[in-house]
């Protein structure tokens, strides 16, 4: 009797196992991206493995609040596949808060 119940329960769950999909995580905001970039600049090529170790409780315990919140919301598996956005050399990034001022020729045209 119990074996039949177990088989029925397993048969009911089997179709659900194939339908499981990964949950889509929210995109990072500018502050989170900046925190990841700063951590990468500080720790170099192995920044993700160092951060993952820190998230697991190992020293140097320098992940700060923003990166710790990322651990809680996105998790270590997300970190493995995350890629920092590319920055073009010499161009100012729109997310750094700087505004470009017109050069002297443009200022003369506006006046």
Would you mind describing this structure in some detail?
The protein contains six helices and no strands. Helix content is 59%, strand content 0%. The protein has helices at residues 2-19, 30-43, 47-55, 64-73, 75-81, 104-110. The chain starts with a helix and ends with a helix. It is elongated, with a radius of gyration of 24 Å.
Largest sheet: none
Average pLDDT level: 78
Secondary structure tally: strands: 0
Given the structure, what is the number of helices?
A: 6
Q: SSE order in H/E notation?
A: HHHHHH
User: Which structural class matches the secondary elements?
Assistant: mainly alpha
Radius of gyration over C-alpha positions, nearest whole angstrom = 24 Å
Give the termini distance in whole angstroms. 91 Å
Helix content: 55-70%
Based on CA inertia axes, which overall geometry fits? elongated
Beta-strand residue fraction:
under 5%
* Uncertain residue segments: 90-111
